[in-house]
Write a structure and sequence with these properties.
The complex is a heterodimer. Chain A is mainly α. Chain A has helices spanning about 20-35, 40-45, 60. Chain A starts with 19 loop residues before the first helix and ends with a helix. In chain A, about 50% of the residues are buried. By secondary structure, chain B is of the alpha/beta class. In chain B, about 35% of the residues lie in helices and about 15% in strands. Chain B is built from 13 helices and 10 strands. Chain B has helices spanning about 5-25, 60-75, 95-100, 120, 125-130, 145-155, 160-170, 190-200, 225-245, 315-320, 325, 340-345, 365-375, and strands at about 30-35, 80-85, 110-115, 135-140, 175-180, 205-210, 255-260, 285-290, 295, 305-310. A 10-stranded mixed sheet of chain B has the order 7-6-5-4-3-2-1-8-9-10. In chain B, helix 8 links the parallel strand 5 and strand 6 (about 205-210). The two termini of chain B are about 20 Å apart. Classes of the chains: A mainly alpha, B alpha/beta.
């Protein structure tokens, strides 16, 4: 449906003001989201927005650099 | 292995874990519709008081009894949080008493409330008390810049109060989500609204929900987003998400996200919000409606009520019913037939469903329409 090649990738040319490095970093975060043990961890908490705790914290793991 | 194959393997594994979750349906979230009453009259309300018996509202004792029953009957080890919706929860004068009583249970120490912010703006001292009762998150609705919000919500000064409530709650370290319902009349204001909110209210999340044809909005054709306007919203989210997501581990960062309006396809999922979406209604999410009926989210059609806590044990209903939430085949009609995304989205969110009709508003199909108009080929098969 998009002008993007491949099942999971995102072409930077399709993203306004997006740098290639930003898209690459986001793809790595996306991989981590897909691997998170509970596939709806964030959705369960989306209004409270604080999934996980301690070392298993979703944000620490998914968005770490 | 090609990059495409690598992504497909990840999505397929994710989908298998979704299917396992559906089979096990562990209770992880309770959505309690505290009331259908409200101190606003929003023209787009998805769960209005118009067509229900408001006198049937659960008493405080009934609500507390239900939460205690759940804590006794269910395995709460996987439980995550309580989400309180309405109506406007703060019009219940006994809300704090209920929170005080249910938060005695260690299972209910993570509670959030969806509100229009009017009461909190006038009574910021409530924020101190709410924290004592396990409230950690607040979702506050702001539907455009001042004139747009006030016109949409039907109260002059509503924007100022909602904004003040969001800012005060964020300053006091609540996890604040500012939610905006995107529609045809406010879509052009969203970037300016985001800039203002991010700079001055500093919430954890700036969420965009697309206006769905539900409740009062069912007759608001002029307000529904066109496919091109939806693309505009998605492009905005995508640009903001990609430029900001590297900082999202920082709890002071403001994240953007598209709410639970539907599946966007394997390419866009995880690129416009900090999660991969799947509807959790009836899978991990039990809904207690204002009158004790058992469903899931309050904006799901009452045609999908599965039981009544005044008459039945909640655990019995959860274990033995909810088939329409957990067996997806009945949803595979219309555009879903032959769709290459079916094995990931399973027909999309329940709040867009009716017992015998096709999904009226699939985001993936809407996005495909804009791509088709631009002569861009549709995504290849994954399923």
């Amino acid at each position: 449906m998009d002008a993007q090649p491949g099942i999971g990738s995102t072409a930077t040319s399709d993203i306004p003001e997006c740098q290639e490095s930003e898209a690459t970093a986001a793809e790595e975060c996306k991989r981590r989201m897909l691997k998170w043990p509970n596939p709806v961890e964030y959705v369960n908490n989306m209004y409270g927005c604080h999934p996980g705790d301690g070392n298993s914290d979703y944000f620490e793991v998914v968005f770490r650099k | 292995m090609s990059d495409d194959a690598s992504w497909q393997a990840l999505f397929d594994d994710w989908s298998e874990r979704i299917e396992a979750l559906v089979r096990e349906h562990p209770l992880q979230i309770i959505s309690w519709e505290a009331t259908r009453r409200c101190n606003l009259h929003c023209i787009h309300c998805g769960s209005p008081p118009d067509d229900v018996d408001l006198d049937a509202e659960l008493s405080a004792d009934e609500v507390v009894g239900a939460f205690e029953e759940i804590a006794r009957d269910f395995d709460m080890r996987q439980f995550r949080h309580v989400n309180i919706t309405g109506g406007e929860p703060f019009v219940r004068e006994d809300l704090l008493d209920i929170l005080r009583r249910i938060s005695r249970s260690p299972a209910y120490g993570n509670i959030d409330i969806q509100t229009n912010g009017l009461v909190l703006a006038d009574h910021p001292e409530l924020l101190d008390e709410l924290r004592d009762y396990g409230v950690t998150g607040l979702g506050i609705s702001i539907d455009g810049l001042e004139d747009t919000h006030d016109a949409f919500r039907g109260v002059r000064g509503g924007f100022t109060k909602a904004f003040r409530a969001a800012r005060t709650a964020a300053e006091r370290d609540y996890v604040v989500t500012v939610s905006v319902v995107a529609h045809a009349k406010n879509v052009d204001e969203i970037p300016a609204l985001f800039a203002l909110v991010k700079e001055e209210a500093r919430p954890r999340v700036f969420r965009i929900m697309t206006l769905d044809p539900l409740g009062r909005a069912e007759v608001l054709d002029d307000y529904l987003l066109s496919p091109e306007q939806l693309r505009q919203v998605i492009d905005f989210l995508k640009a903001e998400y990609l430029s900001g997501c590297a900082s999202y581990a920082d709890p002071d960062a403001t994240m953007v996200e598209l709410g639970c309006g539907g599946w966007l396809g394997t390419k866009l999922e995880g690129m416009v919000r900090p999660f991969i979406f799947h509807c959790i209604a009836g899978i991990t999410n039990l809904g207690i409606l204002f009158d004790g009926k058992l469903g899931a989210c309050s904006n799901i059609s009452r045609d999908f009520i599965e039981g009544d806590l005044r008459e039945e044990r909640i655990r019995q209903v959860w274990d033995n019913r909810y088939k329409r939430y957990r067996i997806f085949d009945w949803k595979r009609t219309g555009d879903c037939i032959g769709c290459d995304q079916w094995w990931y989205c399973h027909g999309g969110p329940m709040h867009l469903k009716r017992p015998r009709c096709e999904s009226p508003h699939c985001l993936y199909v809407q996005m495909a329409k804009t791509a088709a108009r631009s002569a861009v080929p549709r995504e290849g098969g994954n399923g």
